[in-house]
Design a protein that fits this description.
Shape: elongated
Strand order of the largest sheet: 2-1-3-4-5
Distance between the termini: 42 Å
Largest sheet: 5 strands, mixed
Number of strands: 5
Strand content: 5-15%
Length: 367
């Protein structure tokens, strides 16, 4: 019995306690993943806000809409046809979910129609509603407004006209395509690139190369170039498949090239920065996986940023690949961010490059 107990202690110490990978994956990572997922998906219903623009004034509707927690309604009293046209564009770009146009003195006209509805003097009150039924949030917002009108007995008293702005049918394939590109970039330039460098250190390959005239920086950059070729091959295969599945690859292509190259440079320099601060393969692996999970789940890769909690949305604004994916989506008007898509990644690139230059000696130190 003592021998088995000694064997158990020895194996437990060797395979678990002395292995930082095991400690991380078996004890810490499940908790991190749980916190990430619950913070993102734990209150999806409460996070959804239906953005409605109401052109006109109505104290009656304003009181009703203010009592609906998920309804973010803005009343615009002074407007023109140019205002309507501009809002239609915003609606098709998914910046708002519905447009409701009321006539002047809506409350007065509605009250009058109620009083006269049994007489020959009855006139319906004209109301217009614009939505995009192909988009779920817009369709739900439209249904909510119709439900409000139904509860007010409006169908009998209002000339109710619905305008369905379909534009192009942006299905999930078009939406997810940039997200898969972002995931591929991270897989190649965060996971594979860092893993190669860790392998070089562990197998003492860098020590052998140091006996040649080739500098360590050139080794790192050459490895990045090889990864770039692998990425191009992977994206070509992805794009061919996506094209046959109805994705508008041609429209995406210019923004995909620009944002992908910037993202590759950012992740290359970030990886080198991390390696200047740590030579421990377990620590590097932990950083790799934590950053990957946070960027993947909080960066809007697989779903719109607007369904996330306010904290996660703010966090996404500080993640560089968020702007890569959202910048590619902007070519089809599917972006969630209205800010410049280059500033944050270029700041990351600049700071990372400066750190690498100041700490370049750490990259040449052989472990």
């Amino acid at each position: 019995m003592k021998r088995y107990l000694a064997l158990f202690k020895s194996l437990f110490k060797e395979l678990f306690l002395t292995s930082k990978d095991s400690v991380f994956w078996l004890t810490i990572f499940p908790t991190i993943l749980f916190l990430i997922l619950t913070s993102i998906f734990g209150n999806v219903e409460g996070n959804v806000q239906f953005r409605v623009k109401v052109l006109g004034d109505s104290e009656m509707l304003k009181g009703i809409l203010d009592n609906i927690e998920q309804m973010d309604a803005e009343f615009i009293q002074d407007y023109s046809q140019e205002t309507i046209d501009a809002l239609k564009v915003e609606l098709e770009r998914d910046n708002i979910d519905a447009i409701l146009i009321l006539p002047n003195d809506f409350d007065k006209l509605y009250s009058t129609s109620l009083l006269l509805r049994k007489t020959f003097l009855f006139r319906q009150v004209p109301v217009e509603l614009y939505d995009v039924p192909l988009r779920q949030s817009s369709a739900i917002a439209s249904d909510v407004i119709k439900g409000i009108f139904g509860s007010m007995d409006i169908p009998e008293n209002v000339g109710y006209e619905v305008h369905n702005l379909s534009g192009e049918q942006y299905d999930y394939n078009n939406f997810i395509y940039p997200g898969i590109i972002g995931m591929t970039i991270m897989s190649v330039f965060l996971c594979a690139f860092m893993s190669y460098l860790i392998y070089f250190r562990r197998k003492k390959i860098l020590r052998k190369i140091s006996t040649t005239p080739i500098s360590m920086i050139n080794v790192y950059l050459t490895t990045a170039a090889v990864n770039l070729i692998a990425l191009i091959i992977g994206l070509c295969g992805l794009s061919i498949v996506a094209y046959f599945l109805g994705v508008d690859v041609v429209t995406y292509l210019p923004s995909m090239i620009v944002h992908t190259l910037i993202a590759c440079a950012v992740l290359t320099m970030m990886t080198l920065v991390v390696m200047t601060f740590s030579s421990n393969s377990s620590g590097l692996f932990v950083f790799q996986q934590v950053f990957l999970q946070i960027q993947m789940f909080a960066g809007g890769f697989y779903f719109p940023l607007k369904v996330l909690t306010p904290f996660i949305r703010k966090l996404a604004n500080f993640l560089p690949i968020t702007y890569t994916v959202d910048g590619i989506r902007s070519a089809k008007g599917l972006n969630s961010l209205n800010t410049n898509h280059y500033i944050v990644p270029l700041i990351y690139l600049l700071l990372s490059t400066l750190i690498v230059l100041f700490r370049s000696r750490k990259l040449t130190v052989l472990q």
